[in-house]
Automatic annotation (TrEMBL):
Protein name: Solute-binding protein family 3/N-terminal domain-containing protein
Signal peptide region: 1-24
Key words, A-Z: Signal
Length: 289
């Protein structure tokens, strides 16, 4: 009789559970759009926890990155954001330490004036290269990185103004990431600007997903999902779909690599995991300055 009652209780619980399916969990994202790489990477990562029924939602207004990070930290309407790796951000919110862009933001291609297209044609010594002046916004972390490597930087206060300053030859070149340079060239080529064809600068950078330090479950699900997607190749396939053509068009193998240090990179960035980064040997020769 006792076991019969237990069996009936179990059956009743199963009926109740089937009548009340698990409620989907909304994950509110900032700093991305519905169809972009970051959204698809997050969706891929969360797909490895199907029992949670995660659904990605978006805020319908622009939020500055620092403000979004503070909202995440305080559980005020945003759950996750993709952003560059900095010590300051890691003190505020919790990073998933898997570089989403394989370091692409640290691969910098100069925009220059067409009339100066041969500026970097001849191989130059470090000293000679550093005589050229780069242009950057004074608030950008890249500005500090370039200056820490002994590169002269002319700083502006407005992004659009930098293209006018380049046109007027206030500085010599405007280093932009591989993800930005083509779009900006097409937008501003009427200024007589071209993509410099001979060199590429590189310094290590990482782009992470960040969540609240208290949201351990979401942090673990994103991290575990990304690790699984790395292992089975699906994240790399997604990366190539979005950025493979860009990397090919930049023509790395015919560019001279100028390797720079990044003293501001957090010390826990997983630089030793080669599978997480752009495979340089696949694209570039050994002509390193």
């Amino acid at each position: 009789m006792k076991f019969r009652i237990i069996g009936l209780v179990v059956a009743l619980l199963l009926v109740l559970l089937s009548a009340h399916p698990v409620k989907a969990k909304d994950v509110v994202m900032s700093g991305a759009e519905r169809s972009d790489y970051f959204t698809q990477a997050l969706s891929l990562a969360l797909s490895y926890a199907p029992e949670k029924q995660y659904q990605i939602k978006f805020i319908n207004f622009d939020v500055p990155k620092l403000r979004a990070l503070k909202l995440i930290a305080n559980h005020e309407g945003i759950d996750v954001i993709p952003a560059g790796a900095t010590v300051e951000r890691q003190e505020l919110v919790n990073p998933i330490r898997l570089p989403l862009l394989k370091g692409l933001f640290g691969w910098r291609v100069p925009l220059i004036l067409e009339k100066n297209k041969d500026m970097f044609f001849q191989k130059q010594t470090d000293v000679e290269f550093k005589q050229h002046i780069a242009g950057q916004l004074y608030t950008w972390s890249d500005t500090k990185i370039l200056e820490s490597n002994g590169i002269k930087v002319l700083k502006g206060s407005k992004f659009l103004g930098l293209f006018t300053m380049l046109e007027k030859e206030r500085f010599d070149y405007f280093p932009r990431s591989m993800l930005e340079v083509e779009g900006e060239y097409h937008r501003f080529k009427h200024h007589g600007i071209i993509i410099e064809p001979n060199i590429i600068l590189h310094y290590p950078t990482a782009y992470y997903f960040y969540v609240s330090k208290q949201n351990v479950e979401l942090h673990n699900d994103i991290r575990n999902g990304l690790e699984l997607a790395i292992d089975d190749g699906r994240l790399n396939t997604l990366f190539k779909q979005h950025f493979g053509d860009i990397i090919t068009r930049i023509n790395l193998k015919n560019r001279r690599l100028i390797e720079l240090n990044n003293p501001f990179l957090p010390p826990d960035v997983p630089l030793n995991r080669k599978e997480l980064w752009l495979d340089v040997e696949q694209y570039i020769d050994n002509n390193v300055n």
